[in-house]
Description:
This protein has helices spanning about 1-25, 45-50, 190-195, 290-295, 335-340, and strands at about 50-60, 70, 80, 85-95, 100-105, 135-140, 145-150, 165-170, 175-185, 210-215, 230-240, 245-250, 255-260, 260-270, 270-275, 280-285, 300-305, 325. The chain is α+β, with helices and mostly antiparallel strands.
Amino acid sequence: MIYSLLVLISVAVIFLLIFYIDFNDSLQKNYHPNVRSLKTVSLVELNDESIAERYTLVVSKSAISKRLLVNGTSPGPTLRFKPNKWYEVLVINELPDDFTTIHWHGFPQLTTPYSDGAIGISQCPISNERGKNHFKYSFRAPDFPGAYFYHGHYQDQLTDGLYGAIIVDDRNTADDWVILMADYYAQPAANLLPSYLSPPSDGDEPIPDAVIVNGLFTESSLHMMSGLMENHTVHVINAGSLSMYTVTVDGLPLAVTNIDGTPVEEVVYDSIVVNVAQRTSFVLDFSKLPPFIAGSPSLWFRVHVMASMYPTYNESASNFGILGKIYDSSIFFHMPQFMMNSLS
Ligand SMILES: [Cu+2]
């Protein structure tokens, strides 16, 4: 009698254990397979959550300009992710004299807080010591399509040029135009920080010396494209440190479709305002060009800084309103072929 009772209890315990493991497995369904390495998972689940793509981003410093580069350029390469897919990005710190981390701006990181890149909060700095100078971020791309960006999250590395665009979309979006607007400071940010943090500054942020669009100051070295007639999606990202920008395109309305990684019902504006760290996507319909512009070989894409937000007038403010011609493809950042090869 006592033996059958013991057998019954053992069977019940085994059943409960199986249920518990199953239940926990389903609870953790949203986690990356590596995170639940202690549990067995079915092959189907692994396939569902396997890494869609792996990237390598190498952070370095230009010996000439002292700008911070990703894979040799600032801005770094545009990363294109599919919604809700897993990605792995290996970040290698080749800075001669500094730590770094990379933050994926706008990514919820719901089950991957260790990949958020917030130094001192969710991760330790990535050292520049050989052999230890890397960190592998793994995360699920956001559910919603839209424009996001990555940037350095150690001190003011963003201000020194450590940033790049991320486009999340199900479609093949390689033809979309990506515009990264940013404040440019002639001095390295480390030189500006002490006076900004000192009491006399009264919290007034340093005034940028110029605006850069996709890493360029002006339309120099532009390459002309032939006329465009189809619709084009444009993603504008404010990767600046202080300035708010007003974006307009001569003669064309901006049909806004996405704000900060959230699809919105299409609304048409003449101009849009993009504050620091904000992103807006809009569609340009070239068939709507007014006749007096339609014949023109180029069109101005204007990025105006709101200079009135600066604490004091700066001579360089008169140079603001840097822009490029929309038919000039080089203001739209496309990843050069040699950079594609450096992504593994
Ligand atoms: Cu950010």
